[in-house]
Amino acid sequence: MSQPENKHRPVRYKEFASSLIHAAGISRDKHTGAVTLPIYFSSTFRQAQPAEFENWEYIRSGNPTRDAIEELIAELEGGITGLAFSSGMAALHAICGLFKQGERIIIGTSVYGGTFRLLDRVMSNFGITYTQVDTQDLSAVEAAISPDVAAIFVESPTNPLLTTCNLREIAKITQKHGIISVADNTFMTPYLQKPLKLGFDIVVHSASKYLGGHSDLLAGLIAVKNKEIGEKLAYLQNATGAVLAPFDCFLLQRGIKTLAVRMDRHIENATAVAEFLSQNPQVAKIYYPGLPSSPDYETNRLQAKSAGAMLSFELRAGANLRAFFSALEMITLAESLGGVETLICHPAKMTHAAIPPEIRQKTGISDNLIRLSVGIEDKKDILADLERAISAAFDA
Ligand SMILES: Cc1ncc(COP(=O)(O)O)c(C=O)c1O
After folding, report:
1. Percent of the chain at pLDDT exceeding 70
2. Ligand 1 pocket member 218 (CB < 6 A)
3. Residue 385 in contact with ligand 1 by CB distance below 6 A
4. Which residues have C-beta within 8 Å of that of residue 257, sequence separation ≥ 6?
5. Judgement on whether residues 25 and 130 belong to the same structural domain of the protein
6. Residues 252 and 299 in one domain
7. Of 85, 129, 227, 300, which residue is least crowded by CB atoms under 10 Å?
């Protein structure tokens, strides 16, 4: 059957929100012209002669549905290679495969608990060590670089304290010392911040969060701008095998199409929540780089379009956290973030429980810290729920 003639015609657009829908990869299926990405479930592909094939050989090393999402993330982040993994942790693990026994990685003082655990309990068995450094302090970052340091790994804003670090300056330091720079862009997404454009080598995502956007998917993505690093990571992806399955690739690109509209609403609601919390006398501390009073406001403003929709806070001494969590009627107490629904969590007992208490205390993750992933419900309901729960925390 003949195919529509215009199936290979380039799609023209200029703006990021259009690229979410029309970027290379997901814009019209190259093979059929289908407007919505088809899912190719086949695990293997016919060869003309042994080892003679055009594009695909076996599902782990590549397939058309995964190619589409990989091309998409590369374009969205401004990279040349994209890679899709079965989880954010699988993507982070593949990045660790770039390093050898005896090498050291510098990480920020506040990173996702799973990232800390991967380095502290898993990579340490393979002789790859880490040092935690306050990445806001550029001279401390520079001072921590010794000949065994192979990479620096940062989150900005961090999970769960929402501290920001100067990505441009950190990239300059890593370039000067010839070490690899990795940024976890999960909290921001490429809609708000593009670390590769700020000088970083590798961007990694837990795409289970805002990129997927609906709390129904586990996925990890990597984008890189250097061909050689991209090839090494693609090799590791195939060699270790934690690739994203075709159906999940479909779900992910489906979620990404609405990223811009979702993020705009997430941010509008988060701004309202941050203002509400900062005016509430029962709130002792609020961590949100979007508030002009935040020490992170300026750094974030210079490198990102907005502060996103994650925030953390602490209630005044004497708050009963059990009563607070029990009083919530719409906001859900659950791990994860970045979905359409507002989620709340208690990092010390949940997302960051893998970090030993003494390190948590030292890095400012107090036992009273509450983290909020502000969803896209009507903000009046979010604010009413928080107000009710905060009152309950002090009535108990
Ligand atoms: C900032 C950050 N990076 C990485 C991960 C790990 O991603 P995944 O849960 O998709 O494995 C998470 C998970 O919460 C995260 O919050």
Report:
1. 98
2. yes
3. no
4. 20, 21, 26
5. yes
6. no
7. 227
At residue 196, the pLDDT reads: 98
Cβ-based neighbour number of residue 79 at 10 Å: 26
Catalytic annotation present for 117: no
112 touches 351 (CB < 8 A): yes
Q: Whose Cα sits closest to atom 7 in ligand 1?
A: 88
From 28, 40, 66, 112, the catalytic residue: 112
> 112: Cβ below 6 Å to ligand 1?
yes
Q: What is the pLDDT of residues 66-114, one digit of tens each?
A: 999 999 999 999 999 999 999 999 999 999 999 999 999 999 988 898 9
Q: What is the pLDDT of residues 297-324, one digit of tens each?
A: 999 999 999 999 999 999 999 999 999 9
**Cα(168)–Cα(171) distance, integer angstroms:** 5
- Domain endpoint, select from 256, 284, 301: 256
- Which amino acid belongs to residue 318? G
Residues 297 and 166 in one domain: no
Which of 232, 256, 280 is a domain's end point?
A: 256
Catalytic residue flag (residue 130)? no
- Residue 223 sits in a domain whose CATH number is 3.40.640.10
- Residue 73's domain comprises 5-256
pTM over 0.85: yes
Is 235 considered catalytic here? no
Single out the catalytic residue among 30, 60, 316, 388.
60
CA-based Rg of the chain, rounded to a whole angstrom? 22
Distance from Cα 112 to the centre of ligand 1, integer Å: 7
> Is the predicted pLDDT of residue 2 greater than 50, yes or no?
no
How many domains is the chain partitioned into structurally? 2
